[in-house]
Amino acid sequence: RVKDLVELALRIEGCARHTSVHAAGVVISPRPLHELVPVALSGKDELTSQYPMNDLEKVGMLKMDFLGLTTLTVIADCLGSIKEKLGITIDWTKIPNNEEKTMQLFGEGRTEAIFQFESSGMAEMCRRLKPKELEDLSALNALYRPGPLDGGMIDDFIDRHRGIKPVEYIVPEMKDILGNTFGVLVYQEQIMQLAQKLAGYSLGEADLMRRAMGKKKIEEMAVHEEKFVGGAVGNGIARKTAKEIFDLMAKFADYGFNRSHSMAYAVLAFQTAYLKAHYPAHFYAAVLSHEAQDSAKVYKYSTELRSMGLALLPPDINESDEGFTPGDAAVRYGLTAIKGMGTSGVQAIVEARSAGKFTSLFDFFAQIGPSVVNRRGLESLIAAGAFDSLMPGGKTIAEWRAQLSAAIEPALSHGQRMAEDKLRGQSALFGVETAGEVADEELPTVEPWSKAELARNEKAAIGFYLSTHPLDNYKDLLEDLGIANFADNSDLRAGDTVTMGGIISTLAVRQSKKGNRFCMFRLEDRSGGIKAIAWGEAFQKFAALLKDDEMVIVEGRIEASEGQDP
């Protein structure tokens, strides 16, 4: 049986276990692909090569990676909005790479929504480094990866950048190549330049050496070591020094990052940071429009824009567009981010009001027709506060939204009648539309929503609490207990014991390897939130309180590791 097993194993060893398609790899050839390499259809009916990527290169195919980045669209939308609303055209060639306000943003670690710099670990690196120009951003991009972080390269770079450690070069000729990274080998291109300058390599040969180093090809490395040391000695460098330089390059080849890639990403990071620093309302409107379907991200960014002194205005049936729109020190909520609102419905609303603003719920249906927005969409619009600007004086939001909700059926019927009349070619008496005038008479008298209902319905419509928050009722109590909000607790350190008040969301119960149940959730207040874990004993003790939308006061210990949210 063992013999049979080994024979079977030998037969399948080395065979492809499954097929997979590279996320962005595109094969380019001078002739139709199937004439040169075997092809197949993927699960998504894409034409793919049957050869893996390394074999493709060996048969002479050109393999390119094309990355689609949302950031490019966010930047384009933001620039378009600035031009349309402010009449300003931004020319990137005129903006210096060390623009003060932009670099200050990086130095303070305010990098939320900045391309590639969003993580808390990267923000901390920015605060430590205090970048001065584009070169620094590029170096951070290249160094903020597991290898350089574990190897202490990033600490070395920061200390040299800040003048704490002296910048040293093994031979003076290295200064021209390593000067912009303070003597630290950061980029693959630097290894190639050193081989070219110190040992007389051609750039093609230098690229082969870089590849051999990166892939740890021992045989090739031995050949290159001999060639490099020989070339360097020929250029007047001592053999021992040349060997030291080669060993340094071989050590850093693992960590070496492609400079052109790093710099391209740094340029995008700089552009997003520039827009955030100078045009925050336009910037956040563009970012939020692209994250409209992700209510967790909308909540996160809406909290951040408030910390920058901007207001997030509620959706408005007469003011909101499809996406989020910038205003004067404010961003207006977009209609497509409301639950149950489809793009076609929102487009119809924006088009209908171009003839004149809606004056009431009934006028709204008279103008757009009953089939454009369904009942669920209308409930969400009302709960999100999109009709609040039509509220007559003397009413509270709780009364107004409750009345509008109760009037949905009559409003839908009214819209249906109007649509049928239009089809028959009839108009209202004397050709005058009186929908707006009858609106208030038609609104039924009902019990106002409670504060809890108001908050709950709003959260169901937009994914978080916007105009009203359940904790508002307990503001005085929390202050009396000395419990600060999350925004004021930003200087928390690992190991601190803290007491926080908030509302539980996204709770999930898990089981440990030992079979004990515990739960994970987010604890949120109006200003922000934090991840929380209730382990076995605490979970058992407080299981009755641990559920979504429950308001609790929690005492716990802060855990924070590098690059992770606390």
Output the keywords.
three-stranded mixed beta sheet, alpha+beta, 566 residues, four-stranded antiparallel beta sheet, single chain, 25 helices
Q: Order of strands across the biggest sheet?
A: 10-9-8-11
**End-to-end span in angstroms?**
54 Å
In percent terms, what proportion of residues is strand? 5-15%
Main sheet makeup: 4 strands, antiparallel
Which word captures the global form?
globular
How would you describe this protein?
The chain has 566 residues and is α+β, with helices and mostly antiparallel strands. The protein contains 25 helices and eleven strands. The chain has helices at residues 2-12, 53-58, 70-86, 100-107, 120-129, 134-143, 146-150, 153-161, 175-178, 188-199, 203-214, 218-234, 239-253, 259-278, 280-290, 295-307, 343-352, 361-368, 375-383, 397-406, 408-424, 435-442, 451-462, 475-480, 536-542, and strands at residues 25-28, 39-41, 47-49, 62-65, 311-313, 325-327, 330-332, 497-511, 517-525, 528-534, 551-557. It has a four-stranded antiparallel sheet with strand order 10-9-8-11. It has a three-stranded mixed sheet with strand order 5-7-6. The chain has a two-stranded antiparallel sheet with strand order 1-4. The radius of gyration is 31 Å and the shape is globular. The two termini are 54 Å apart. The model is unreliable at 429-441 (pLDDT under 50).
